[in-house]
What does this fold into?
Amino acid sequence: MDSKLNYSYFRKMAVATSLLTAALLANPAHAVNWTEVGDAGDLLSTAQEPMGNGPLRNIYGTISTNADVDLYRIFISDPTSFSASVTSTSGNFDSVLALFNGGGYGVYANDDARLGDRNAGLPAGSFLGPQAPGWYYLAVFGLDTTPTSGNGFTPDHYIGPEVSAPFTQIIGASGPGGASPLTGWAPVDPADVVSINEEYRLRLSGTTVSAVPEPETYAMLLAGLGLIGAMVRRRSGFMG
Ligand SMILES: [Ca+2]
Ligand SMILES: [Ca+2]
Ligand SMILES: [Ca+2]
It folds into this structure.
């Protein structure tokens, strides 16, 4: 066999292989920014799951009323670096964040990330935080409702002891209701429901979204395979 042809063949093979590698590795590096579609539900069965491929960096959504709760189903790939923080457009939205595990049991929650800051934040490295990779549910909501579980305990004691000043505590599901999974939210009296329309930004770390390849990944993959196929055909032509 001609050694020049041999060299050329393997060089092209290397190019095709690196194209394939690029298709498989480069794509997941894209950060995913998700925008709430319609209104994310507030129950495990109606939670919204961000789509895409790569680390989930931001979720943009709207809390439309003081009774609106937005629950997202997220995959925590790196529990030690998981964190979440929320900011709102007006800066007046007194947000709360609560994380539930895949079974709906409370993990940890926060009202105010810092003293004098109404924005909620779930820090990385908390001993109350997620301990294992897996599916979780993250809720963003206002102060007028609280998560409830199905065992009849008062809502205020579901996630943890009633929040008190200075509201910056990281609270676990240590209240009596925390022994049961999320089943709903404390209702806001219809007469007290007011429009808020706060647009929020939820910054995340340690989370990824589904590794289902996007169309361009398939295209690059097929292009790479096609290139290899063409070279194999050409090579057999030379040899035959
Ligand atoms: Ca919403
Ligand atoms: Ca909602
Ligand atoms: Ca708050």
Observations:
- The mean pLDDT is 83.
